[in-house]
Design a protein that fits this description.
Blueprint lengths: L1 H16 L7 E6 L7 H16 L4 E6 L7 H10 L4 E2 L26 H8 L2 H8 L6 E11 L1 E4 L13 E4 L3 H9 L3 E4 L5 H6 L5 E4 L1 H6 L8 E4 L4 E9 H5 L3 H36 L3 E4 L2 H22 L1 H14 L2
Helix pairs in contact: 1-10, 2-10, 4-12, 6-11
Bound molecules: (2S)-2-hydroxybutanedioic acid.
Family: Belongs to the bacterial solute-binding protein 7 family.
Protein name: C4-dicarboxylate ABC transporter
Keywords: Signal, Transport
């Protein structure tokens, strides 16, 4: 409620101040997913709120679907200042030397969204953002997408069903290990290339939350989907540090308030967007959807347990133990 009041007050104050002759400050917000996804919708919500709170002194240009930059390129473009804002998946910071974010890729690490939010919205989340500063990047917020399903052109019920499959992954060593542990062959690839790679048989399958599987039409070229919820996909909303530090103080506060509101919105719609997408995949009749039963789920959990042990030194023992402490606290 307090932030809503703050939003209202700031809108009033800054509208008056918008007399200046200079054109608006432009924020180019680039991302790789479709507009009708949790991230796509939250980006537009941020645009609306930011332009409203600053009384038009800021204009946010949202570029979805990799129309400006693909995965790896967009982080480089941000560091160069060619764009000002991104919301990449937490699985994509490893290649930039910030491998600690790969903790979010560990299979079955988050027993609930509650624990996830304890991590992202608590000291661990802030500590991870501090690691971005040395790369000229400032972290603003964590946006939710959801838990992933697996897809392929054959049923994936038991870990053995993955044997020899070429599976597309994001550029994360944890996801690489996850697929190898299942006996599959991981293939890191930019998001914008996945649909064609599946259709042309360059890869056999992939993993993503239903909202991406549906909006990228991947389900049209995958006969089977397994609702495994084996891993999480979320985002870090980040800005170019020099750009952000260079903003007038009143504008930065208005944008921070707008981001808080957009984050609340993003994390509110994420689950329902994914539920609706999974329903739409079912209704399409193009893909058989299988939900793991208890016996199958137990087999997946057991098969994937070694991943955390094997990648512990990469992610950081201290970091992992603080996450496990949050998990233990949530059970009290
Ligand atoms: C992927 O590459 O599969 C996802 O990270 C895309 C996204 O941003 O949701």
């Amino acid at each position: 409620m307090r932030s809503r009041i703050l939003l209202f007050l700031l809108t009033a104050v800054l509208t008056v101040a918008n007399a200046s002759a200079q054109g608006p400050i432009v924020i180019k917000f680039s991302h790789v997913v479709a507009a009708d996804t949790p991230k796509g919708k939250a980006a537009v919500r941020f645009k609306e709120l930011a332009e409203k709170t600053t009384g038009g002194r800021v204009r946010v240009e949202v570029y979805p679907n990799s129309m400006l930059y693909k995965d790896k390129e967009e982080l480089e473009a941000l560091q160069l200042g060619a764009v000002q804002m991104l919301a990449p998946s937490l699985a994509k910071f490893g290649p930039f030397g910030i491998k600690e974010f790969e903790l979010f890729d560990l299979p079955y690490i988050f027993p609930s969204r509650d624990v996830l939010y304890r991590v992202t919205q608590g000291p661990i989340g802030r500590e991870l953002f501090r690691k971005l500063e040395s790369k000229g990047i400032t972290g603003l917020a964590y946006w939710d997408n959801g838990f992933k399903v697996m897809s392929a052109n054959r049923p994936l019920r038991m870990p053995a069903d993955f044997q020899g499959l070429r599976m597309r992954i994001q550029s994360s060593k944890v996801l690489d290990a996850q697929m190898r542990t299942l006996g599959a062959l991981p293939q890191a690839m930019a998001f914008s290339e996945v649909y064609d790679a599946l259709r042309n048989g360059i890869v056999d399958g992939t993993e993503n939350p239903p909202s991406n599987l549906y909006t990228q039409k991947m389900y049209e070229v995958q006969k089977h989907v397994t609702v495994s919820n084996h891993g999480y996909l979320g985002y870090a909303v980040i800005v170019n540090k020099k750009f952000w530090d260079g903003l007038p103080g009143d504008i930065r506060s208005a944008l921070e308030a707008a981001m808080q509101e957009a984050t609340r919105y993003a994390n509110t719609i994420a689950q329902q967007e994914n539920d609706a997408a999974l329903q739409a995949v079912r209704r399409s009749g193009k893909t058989e959807v299988h939900v793991l039963n208890d016996k199958e789920m137990a087999a997946w959990r057991e098969a994937l347990l070694p991943v955390q042990r094997d990648l512990e030194s990469r992610i950081g023992r201290d970091l992992l133990s603080s996450v496990n402490k949050e998990i233990a606290n949530s059970r009290r």
